[in-house]
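Lay summary. Proteins are chains of building blocks that fold into shapes, and those shapes determine what they do. In this project we predict the shape from the chain. Here is one chain we studied, written as its sequence of building blocks.
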Amino acid sequence: MNLSSVRRALGFAFDQVGITLEDSRAVAKGTASAVESVIGVGVAGKFGFLRRMFVSASASNGARSYGVEAAAQSVDIVDSEVFSGGATLSAALHAETPGVFVRSSRLKGTGTGGTFGIYADFPAPAPGVRMGVDQSSIEGYETSVYLKAGSTARLGHAKLYGGVFMEQGASALCLFTFQTVQQDTLPVDTNCL
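And here is the predicted shape, written in a compact code that computers can read:
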């Protein structure tokens, strides 16, 4: 992630550091004519810990809009609300690393088309390493969680508004996770589809 790019509108950007951000609000807005992507909070480098945050990113006809872009070795989102929308590709959380953990939070992508609660796009991690979601609400337009090839996730006690889409080579396990599209609770360690 290149946080210094002039083609990005950023609320907060942290690169090559460890950062704790609490009780704060980050709002980023942009248009396609001015920027390629709009990011509420961008975290790269060592770690990021976001607690009790309100994050919103919106793009008018933009290419990409991410509430949180997580590219650090470890990123925790706790007791927070994260929103994104308005772009060709919008996600409340863009996970570029498997070291992402979401707990007791609401992630919502608004709009139509390529709109997701979580968009995970990282290479296959070491065996047993997975992005984690626990006791959270994940909302998208038709798909709440989109996993690119190689990405892995474990969703525990979560509520998904929309389905889980996995490209070939991606995997997701669900632990007592409720999908509104199926009106059912998925059993322990089942494939999220």
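What the prediction tells us: Residues 37 and 64 are 5 Å apart (CA to CA).
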